[in-house]
Amino acid sequence: MHKDGDDHLIIPVGMVTLDEDNKTGCANEIDYKTFAKAGRFSKGKPVEREYEITLMRHYLPAATVAYPSNIDDNFYNGREFETRLSRQKL
Fold first, then answer.
1. Under 8 Å CB-to-CB from 22, ≥6 apart: which residues?
2. Residue 88 — very low, low, confident or very high, per pLDDT cuts 50/70/90?
3. Measured between alpha carbons, how far is 9 from 88 in angstroms, rounded to an integer?
4. CA-CA distance, 83 to 16, in Å (whole number)?
5. Is 59 strand, coil or helix?
6. What are phi and psi of 39, to 5 degrees?
7. DSSP states of 16-45 as a string?
């Protein structure tokens, strides 16, 4: 259960395909059930590393080994943090 006011969450940009033309994003790698159970936070609060690690374990349980509790600066080098833009057919 989420605390009152905890209605924001983050999704690693590499797990979302961004469509800049239509200002939308699509997270095909995350199903509704997983998304609905993801931990939220309150607007204005800082996003802390522990929250990010918890979400990565939630979104990618099979990759838990790749995200140990003592993560270093290489945390953001995974494909989950690479921007993907949709390509419009011209």
1. none
2. very low
3. 28
4. 8
5. helix
6. -65, 140
7. SEEETTTTEEE-TTS-HHHHHHS--EETTS
